[in-house]
Design a protein that fits this description.
homodimer, about 10% strand, globular, two-stranded antiparallel ribbon, DNA-binding, Arc Repressor Mutant, subunit A, mainly alpha
DNA sequence: AATGTGACTTGCACTATGCAAGTAATCTAC
DNA sequence: GTAGATTACTTGCATAGTGCAAGTCACATT
C-alpha cells in the first residue's frame, strides 16, 4: 500500500497541492495554508522525486526557480487523492464543500480523467 | 483531507487489516506481517477510536480479549483504501496481485459495496 | 553596486518511534 | 486450585524524525 512513500503528514498534501491546487514551486508549496517547515518540504520533495511521483524542472525564464510536475506514476494517484478529498470533505467540517468537491462527488471518474488529460498535455510539451 | 487522523505510517494499515484482512484483536494486528511496535499499536488504536473510525468491544466469551470493529465512519473509508491498495499493487512489486486485488480492479464499486454490507451486518448484531 | 528572491541547509530543541522488558487480568491444564 | 500460558496493554530508554529560526548561495531586479 506504499505507506513507506507517503505514510506521513505531508507527502500527500504536496501531491494534492500539485494536482488540484496549481502549486508548482517551493515557495508556492510553503504558502499552501498548512505550515510545513522548509527542511521537511525539501526532504519530501526529494523523496517524492526519488520515488518517481514528481519531477524537478528548472524554470526556463528564471534560473532561480524550480517547477515541480507530476510524473506518469504521480498522475495515477488521482483516484486515491479524489477519494481522500471526498472523505475529508464529508467528515471534517471544512466549511461548505467548494465547487470542485461537489464535482468530485457527482462525477468522480470525470474529474480523474480531466486531471489525467491536463497533466498528459503538460508532459507532452 | 484528514491527514491529522491517518497521516502516519500505521493507522491506515490497521484499518486495512480490519477491513480486508479479518484482523480483530491486538495480537492479530501485531502479527500482521509489518512489525508495528506494541506501544505504537496501542496508541494508534486509541486514536482511531477517539476519531470515531473504530470501536472497542470486549469479547463475550473471553474476558481477556478485545475485538475491534469499524464504525459507520470507518466503513466509509473503503473507497479510499481500495484505491490505495490498487495503486500499491500496480506500482510496487508485491508478487502477483492476489485474487481480491484483481476483483478490486475489475469491480471497484462492487467490492466496496460488499465490504459495506459485511460490516453493516456486523453492526446490526 | 545594492537589495531582493527562490530554493534550499544547518543547528538545535522537542516529539515520536522502535525495541525490550514488565504488568495485570483472565484462562487452561493438571 | 495453583502453576503456567495468553491477551492487552505500559514503561523506560536510545534513536530517529519534526518544527522553528536563521543562514547560505545562486540568480534577478533596480
Amino acid at each position: 500500500m506504499s505507506l513507506e512513500i507517503f505514510g506521513d503528514r505531508w507527502s500527500l498534501l504536496v501531491v494534492r497541492d500539485l494536482m488540484f491546487g496549481g502549486r508548482r514551486t517551493f515557495k508556492e508549496f510553503l504558502d499552501s495554508g498548512e505550515k510545513i517547515a522548509t527542511n521537511v518540504l525539501a526532504e519530501r520533495l526529494q523523496r517524492l522525486e526519488a520515488n518517481g511521483i514528481i519531477e524537478r524542472r528548472r524554470d526556463a525564464d528564471d534560473a532561480r526557480k524550480v517547477n515541480y510536475a507530476l510524473t506518469k506514476k504521480g498522475i495515477t494517484l488521482a483516484p486515491v487523492l479524489v477519494e481522500m478529498i471526498i472523505w475529508g470533505a464529508r467528515h471534517e467540517e471544512t466549511a461548505a464543500p467548494p465547487e470542485i468537491i461537489r464535482r468530485m462527488v457527482a462525477d468522480r471518474d470525470g474529474v480523474v480523467a480531466e486531471i489525467r488529460d491536463q497533466w498528459k498535455k503538460d508532459r507532452s510539451l
